[in-house]
Amino acid sequence: MSNRLLAAAVVFTVLVFSPLTRAQTAEQRESGKNIHRDGWDRIVPPAPKDQQSEPAPVRDLTGIWEPTPGYRDGVFATGPKNYPSDVKPEHELPFTPLGLKTWKEHKPGFGTTAVPIAENNDPFDICDPIGFPRLELFNLRAIQIFQTKSQVAIIYQNDQVWRNIWMDGRELPKEILEPRWYGYSVGKWTDDYTFVTETVGLDERTWIDNVGRPHSDELKVTETWHRVNHDVMEFTMTIEDPKMYTKPWNPLTKFRLRLQPEWFDIREMICSASEAQEYNKTVAEQAVAEKNAKKKAQPSK
Amino acid sequence: MKSRLMRGFLAGVALLSISGSLFAHHGNAAYDSRTVTVKGTVTAWVWTNPHTFLKFDAKDEKGDVTHWLGEWNAPSTLVNFGITAKSFKPGEEVTVTMTGMSKTGQPVGRVTKVILPDGQELSMGSER
């Protein structure tokens, strides 16, 4: 018994006085101040301003990554960084007539085509799968990359989903028998620090981004993951869809992600259907009722 | 003590413009740019995605109760600002500031700051 007590005392002393423990828990919770914490409520060290580090390992993306310098830099609520939905001409996309028509049929909550909640037809609003590439173009948060000889697998904080990117030599499917929310992906190293993926076979029900940019069954997404140094990776994406866009475009170019400590726990960020229903009951249905009441009150012509 | 226990009332309405975007997929088109501060009693703190909700009741001078709904950011954002699933308990007296009120006239708004019974202030600072 006394041995057990002694062991407990030793464990307690080690935990209390361990520099690691103190470093991760010493800072008090302070409202109004942004102190980044992981899913286990541990404080995440801020990135150094110069983002310099030792060279990256060769042909290796493994690790936990988060947008940098700000962990919220990948939220992209009004559309991806290069093409937010606003009135600036340089942010207009090269829509085909079908692309423009389809975009106007989409009723998002953000951007120049935003509508009130009651008119919103965003599939993610009812927790349909967010799909790819919206997975990376809205709420790109923490990701964890695993690698084997035959594939790279990425797990995402956003919607708690994963993708498998095959690099065993297979080619993209010639014919898509079954479109998928996250498509079919293959990848290859183009040099020791750059991994390029291609994805096709994407379900047309999904939107490309949070402002409802559309895609067809001909969408091909190319991702370039380039490791700048040990701690920093740059992420570029290219969208090609000749039915919807007259030329390829890049929603993100050299968007930076930072390697996080091995202890970093990825937080749950799940769209729950019952929670969405609760939201719709409390806000959207009220809005619809109000709208209908206003319509009724209007004198008939 | 009794003043602390008094039921809430509408404390004031002020106009203020907001900038920046709200971080959920259902959007900000439902809200205008008014700022409203309401004192009330917490009935529920709903810690959900994509956004959290603070439900609270406020009484006016006549004793009529209004059931308020304050929408706040996602849990994954709030935790970094010292706001957690345990920040509010039913029955607590709180003063809630909302910037962005429902365009439909419903008692619904976007929370920016909450003052707890002990005077502690919870907010995301200048961020939205």
CATH superfamily of chain B: Nucleic acid-binding proteins
**What order do the strands of the largest sheet of chain A run in, or round the barrel if closed?**
1-2-3-4-5-6-7-8-9
What oligomeric state do these chains adopt? Answer: heterodimer
Shape of chain A: globular
- Measured as a percent range, the helix fraction of chain A is 10-25%
The secondary structure category of chain B is mainly beta
Rg of chain B? 14 Å
What does this structure look like?
The complex is a heterodimer of chains A (301) and B (128). Chain A has helices at 2-17, 19-25, 97-105, 134-137, 273-297, and strands at residues 63-67, 143-147, 151-156, 162-166, 184-191, 194-200, 220-227, 232-240, 249-259. Chain A is α+β, with helices and mostly antiparallel strands and 301 residues long. Chain A is globular. Chain B is mostly beta strands and 128 residues long. Chain B has a single domain (2-123), classed as Nucleic acid-binding proteins (OB fold (Dihydrolipoamide Acetyltransferase, E2P), Beta Barrel). In chain B, strands 2-3-4-6-5 form a five-stranded mixed barrel. The relative contact order of chain B is 0.24. The A-B interface holds A 29-37, 41, 71-72, 75, 77-78, 108-110, 114-117, 120, 122, 124-125, 138-139, 141, 157, 210, 267, 269-272, 275-276, 278-279, 282-284, 286-287, 290-291 and B 21-30, 46, 48-51, 53, 69, 71, 74-77, 79-84, 102-106, 108, 120-125, 127.
Please outline what is shown here.
Chain A is of the alpha+beta class. Chain A has a domain at 63-259.
How do the strands and helices of this protein lay out in sequence?
The complex is a heterodimer of chains A (301) and B (128).
Chain A: H1 2-17, H2 19-25, E1 63-67, H3 97-105, H4 134-137, E2 143-147, E3 151-156, E4 162-166, E5 184-191, E6 194-200, E7 220-227, E8 232-240, E9 249-259, H5 273-297
Parallel strand pairs in A: 4-5
Antiparallel strand pairs in A: 1-2, 1-9, 2-3, 3-4, 5-6, 6-7, 7-8, 8-9
Chain B: H1 2-5, E1 10-15, E2 34-46, E3 52-59, E4 65-72, H2 75-78, E5 93-101, E6 108-115, E7 121-123
Parallel strand pairs in B: 4-6
Antiparallel strand pairs in B: 1-2, 2-3, 2-5, 3-4, 5-6, 6-7
